[in-house]
Amino acid sequence: MFNWLGNVRDRLRRRAPHIDLVSAQQRIPQSAPLDAHSARVYEQSPWVYIAINRIAEAGALVPLKVYRLQGEQRIGIDNHPLEQLLNSPNPLTSRFELIEQTLGSLELHGNAFWLLVGDERGMPREIWMLRPDRVSVLPDAARVVAGYLYQIDGQTIPLSAVEVLHFQRWHPSSDFYGLSPVSAARNAVLSDRHMSDWNRHSFGKDSGVPAGIVNIRDFISDSDFERLKREWRSNYGGTSRRTAFLRGGAVQWQHIGLSHSDLDFLQGRRAQRDEILNIYGIPVGLVSENATEANAKVAERQFIERTLYPKLVRLAEKISAEMLPFYGQGLVAAFDDIRPTDTQARLDEIRTAYPLLSINELRATYFQLPPVAWGDVAVNPPTHGESNPPLNLSPTSQGETSDASKSAIETELAQWQRFALNRLGQEDGRAFEVRAIPDELAFEVSAGLLFAQDRESVKRVFAGVGVG
């Protein structure tokens, strides 16, 4: 049988064959396929506004850090120039505003654009947001994207591809632009909008129901009828409610419209709300007035894991691919992993691995910390019948400490002990602040406290600490 996979390396194309055709079809720049009313929908639809704001504001709170790759391990870089740039992207925008606008633009238009402004060395020194409805992509057969055009006030500003960072959602029918979630939610948004307008018109000035009716049974002349109305309104009239006058007793009122109850108005609006929020990945439990505390916590976890975190990964990987090469090779950017973890399961796993791993292996595997010179030794395993491992943590192995240093270490250990006792039974993930305690001692105490389940076991951890 013919093996069509044979010699596949010799037959791989050096260039994707469809790029030329795609570029040829779109040589004339076209505006992004944006819904012209996307911005108006955000301004006028409460559920779209809520959904986008929840995503954008929550994402803007998450720190982004830069790491250097060493094999499969990521080593954090403190205060990297990219982090400094993001903290102050330009004179008018803060870091929070930049990330908020980027995520908001993606959720509203499906696209977000950063304009990079460089210094004399060509390194980025400012980042400016570009409005997606003003940006057009310039396709190119050789480079796929030759650049961008920014149109404002009748002027067209050409931008090179290296100057613009284009974030985009996947679009099944566009090669260069992302799909706006507003397009997927269009019917739900319009239905909710029409229901809201109908409700507003039902209680509008021109649709008000009379507060009362004065029915004049006997026939009177026009002049007497108008005089009676004037006198009645002069004595009993007002601006908020009107009184209806009827001539003759044979006039009857027959309502032919549908009431809010007939239309199940509130249930209909809830259905539109749920559909819009589901399209944006917002669990209804986050906004529902009937959600219990347990439901709200589950909804928050789902929102973070399935909605917010993937969006942050999209941003971070784009930044890693197109911005970090300005600063060298082997760098990646990543937002903090905010996905909730099962604390008890994590502690159980660490306790199981504790007797088997060295200090450096524990640091790398569970705490993402770099190795230390004193970390190649194994952590003392708990002996039979002990609830926590005995600690031989005296720093005398590195030389006798001075009286002042010894006093400072003992004072800080006492503060740690009080803090550890006070937070027993609480979900407090704050780390200890290390000032005087040596690193190896601090790590061993922290590891030992993982086994402490009650006040006595906490006290035994600190009782086993000797300071020479």
Alpha carbon gyration radius: 34 Å
Number of helices: 17
Strand neighbour order, sheet with most strands: 1-6-7-8
Strand content: 5-15%
Secondary structure: helix percent = 40-55%
SSE succession: HHEHHEEHHEEEEEEHHEHEHHHEHHHHH
The assigned structural class equals alpha+beta
Name the average pLDDT. 77
End-to-end separation in angstroms reads: 78 Å
Q: So what's the overall shape?
A: extended
How many strand segments?
Answer: 12
Given as residue ranges, the uncertain stretches (5+ residues, pLDDT < 50) are 1-10, 381-400
What's the story with the biggest beta sheet?
4 strands, antiparallel
Counting structural domains, the number is: 3
Regarding quaternary structure, how should these chains be classified?
A: single chain
Write up this protein.
- With 468 residues, this protein is of the alpha+beta class.
- It has three domains: 11-181, no CATH class; 187-247 and 259-269, no CATH class; 343-463, no CATH class.
- Helix content is 43%, strand content 15%.
- It is built from 17 helices and twelve strands.
- The strands form four sheets. Strands 1-6-7-8 form a four-stranded antiparallel β-sheet. The chain has a three-stranded antiparallel β-sheet with strand order 3-2-12. A three-stranded antiparallel β-sheet has the order 5-4-9.
- Helix 3 packs across helix 4 (46-60).
- The radius of gyration is 34 Å and the shape is extended.
- It starts with 7 loop residues before the first helix and ends in a 5-residue tail after the last helix.
- 21% of the residues are buried.
